[in-house]
Write the structure tokens for this entry.
Amino acid sequence: MHDLPKQTDQGEEIHPALKEEIRRIFQLQKEHRYRVAQTSARERIRKLKRLQRWILENRAKIQEALYQDFRKPPAETDLTEIYVVLSEIKHAIRHLKKWMKPKRVRPTRALLTTRAWIRYEPRGVVLIISPWNFPFNLTFGPFVSALAAGNCIVVKPSEYSLYTSHLMKQMVEELFPPEEAYLFEGDQQVARELLSYPFDHIMFTGSPVVGKEIMKAAAEHLTTVT
């Protein structure tokens, strides 16, 4: 837990190699998103259970990372970080088949002889930007939703929770191939570089000031935002 990546200094230009890696991962996920979108409920539940198992088996590492970042006691980490995410996973597993099932709706009078359904489809490639204060909870809560919905995912956690972000990166790399999920560490320059790409959806938790920047960047590509 002591070998941390070098963070970019505030205002410093993003390294060309990292810039190229962002481009490569985005393109890789764009090319792969249709295959992920076609995954069945069984395949998505298998991914969720793999995520659940990793969290349970590495609970002590999560507690240690949050203690290193915030001196947060293990019991508090369990209550406010780990159990919240495990609850999200259990909820998604329990309801996923129902969520994916097309919903029959009545046609309008002009189309009385036809049949109609609402069919829920993945967005595609989703960007998750999470804050420092509950870094594990507010990263993997949205991650579970994006994963259950059949999306490819890019994550950018806060640079202020170094140990937790580093552990989360290891976690994502162990569980998913880069064409399905990838986590970038770094500061606001990394976030701005990611926001220059036309993601299909952005999930953000943070301050109104940063939220305005994200809405502005999303508007450039007509990207929807949560």
Observations:
- The two ends are 32 Å apart (CA to CA).
- Residues 74-100 form the longest helix (27 residues).
- Residues 1-10 have pLDDT under 50 and may be disordered.
- The longest strand covers residues 125-129.
